[in-house]
Amino acid sequence: MFALLLELTGISRCMSEHGRQIDEFMEIILWFSLILFVIWFSFFVYSLARFGAAKNPHASYEGLKASWPKHLEWTIIFAEMVLLFGFSVPLWGNRVLNPPGPGEAVTLEAVAQQFGWIFHYPGPDGRLGRRDMRLADAMNPIGLDKSDPAAKDDIITMNEMHVPVGKPVLIYLGSRDVVHNYYVIQMRIQRDAIPGLTIPMWFTPTHTGRFEIACGQLCGVGHFAMKGFLVVDTADDYEAWLKQMGQLSRTKPPVGDTAVARR
Known about the structure:
Layout: H1 2-9, H2 19-50, H3 68-96, E1 106-113, E2 116-121, E3 155-158, E4 160-164, E5 169-175, E6 180-184, E7 189-193, E8 199-203, E9 209-215, E10 227-233, H4 235-251
Helix pairs in contact: 2-3
């Protein structure tokens, strides 16, 4: 039923494994809000009829003397606490405190900058090379330390991120300048990229396709144009893309806006 509500309201379909939990929790909150609305609106209508000027020509400032409104308020507070500590906190903890290990997931780095995304993949050795932003320049936008053996086969793409369907993806978010935000609504993921910090975020895509990566923080005059693309491939297509990008990175490193990975 909630899927129908999402479709009617124009919210994109869920395309990730954990997204169903988020959508179900949203549904609980919406139904709870609807019940609250009916209760309070009914009380409002009752108050208009019961305490209107026609029946009460002289104003009374004592208010209600019955005890049931207080009991109702405490019931609502209890329900809200259950929603917060019984559903929200465990859901948040599962998403933030229990990321998959590097060996269980496709692991990469996403570095935000005004106004685009740089994605850093490990090469065939499976290890991400060391980075130092003091080494960053036009030819090396994320400060990859070329003296590190693990960096020799690393892959860097601009504004297009590829992942395989059905496998956990672990992203380490960072920023070169100001606070940005990695946001893909279909995957139900959103997290800030903060300068000086490396912040993990993970999800498991369940459908192939091409999805927009938006920046959810106002990051400057070019914020409107800051977007990338998440491409969810089949396992074979993903391996073919990695091979193609590995060959390309050995011949021509990505520089500026022209370095956009293509399928």
